[in-house]
Design goal:
By secondary structure, this protein is an alpha+beta fold. The chain is 25% helix and 46% strand. Strands 1-2-3-4 form a 4-stranded antiparallel beta sheet, with helices on both faces. Strand 1 and strand 2 form a beta hairpin. The model has no long low-confidence stretch (mean pLDDT 95).
Length: 89
């Protein structure tokens, strides 16, 4: 969680001194490959894109996998979740 907190702090001023990301929802109850993860739905403000993003730690490294689109919908979420369900370390 410390890594995500540091990312959030950077994002507060990353877009020409203004916030670059607006987090809509965030949960640390997610899992990927059996590993604990943080899942977020957020808005990339400068790009005007929405994003699903998951952070997880594996092999002593922190990874993130994201999917961005102008509009998020159930089909995009289903694709993203199927990808994550089949992700192998």
């Amino acid at each position: 969680n410390r890594f995500v907190s540091e990312i959030d702090k950077i994002n507060e001023t990353a877009w020409e001194g203004k916030p670059s990301v607006s987090v809509a929802t965030s949960t640390d109850q997610a899992k990927i490959g059996g590993q604990p993860a943080i899942f977020r739905v957020q808005k990339l403000l400068a790009a005007d894109l929405n994003e699903y993003k998951i952070y997880f730690k594996a092999h002593e490294m922190i990874f993130s996998i994201s999917l961005s689109a102008p509009e998020l919908n159930q089909n995009i979420l289903n694709f993203y979740l199927a990808f994550l369900d089949n992700f192998k370390f």
